[in-house]
């Protein structure tokens, strides 16, 4: 289900298009993740597959015809009413304007219309910006945000930080929560 959204950002004086990703977006998504210096960068192949196989659970933000950010997610195979957010990325020039939350909000709306009832993501304890972004999303939607430990540091090879599981529920459409 494609839900294109157009929004005018008064701060940047630019129109933001939010839409589902297409194959042509994969390389730019990989570059944004790589340039972030904070995300685990997947292979370029993985971003292409994401655009092909998980476009309906992912979002692209485009400004002036260029990909400015993305959210990639999937519904859990055993729990199809749960949307897991894998990555949220905003390119450096577009940070600080709420683009990440706008993309998440659009994706939640799209997925809620298809029956998704809960959103999950993992966040490392040293990432307060991501915690704040998901807390803002939960507030915008009138939903609860909970945190539990999911993966401990010793479960990861190579010194990866632990990851806490954050849940936002219920996921509702804008019509339902207004």
From TrEMBL:
CDD domains, per the entry: NAT_SF
Matches recorded under SUPFAM superfamilies: Acyl-CoA N-acyltransferases (Nat)
Pathway as given in its UniProt record: Amine and polyamine biosynthesis; ectoine biosynthesis; L-ectoine from L-aspartate 4-semialdehyde: step 2/3
Keywords, alphabetical: Acyltransferase, Transferase
Pfam family of the protein (one): Acetyltransf_1
Record InterPro entries: Acyl_CoA_acyltransferase, Ectoine_EctA, GNAT_dom
NCBIfam families recorded: ectoine_EctA
GO biological process: ectoine biosynthetic process
Enzyme Commission code(s) on record: 2.3.1.178
GO molecular function terms listed in the Swiss-Prot or TrEMBL record: diaminobutyrate acetyltransferase activity
Protein name per its UniProtKB record: L-2,4-diaminobutyric acid acetyltransferase
PROSITE patterns attached to this UniProt entry: GNAT (PS51186)
Gene3D superfamilies linked to this entry: 3.40.630.30
Domain N-acetyltransferase: 16-172
Family of this protein: Belongs to the acetyltransferase family. EctA subfamily.
Organism whose genome encodes this protein: Nocardia aurantiaca
């Amino acid at each position: 289900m494609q839900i294109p959204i157009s929004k005018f950002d008064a701060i940047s004086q630019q129109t933001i298009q939010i839409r589902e990703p297409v194959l042509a977006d994969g390389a730019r998504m990989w570059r944004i993740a790589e340039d972030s210096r904070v995300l685990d960068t997947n292979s370029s192949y993985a971003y292409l597959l994401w655009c092909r196989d998980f476009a309906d659970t992912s979002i692209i933000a485009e400004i002036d015809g260029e990909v400015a950010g993305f959210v990639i997610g999937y519904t859990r195979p055993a729990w199809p009413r749960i949307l897991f957010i894998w990555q949220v990325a905003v390119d450096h020039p577009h940070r600080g304007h709420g683009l990440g939350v706008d993309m998440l909000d659009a994706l939640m709306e799209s997925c809620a219309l298809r029956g998704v009832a809960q959103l999950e993501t993992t966040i490392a304890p040293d990432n307060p910006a991501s915690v704040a972004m998901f807390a803002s999303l939960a507030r915008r939607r009138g939903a609860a945000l909970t945190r539990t430990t999911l993966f401990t540091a010793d479960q990861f090879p190579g010194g990866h930080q632990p990851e806490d599981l954050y849940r936002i529920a219920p996921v509702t459409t804008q019509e339902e929560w207004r």
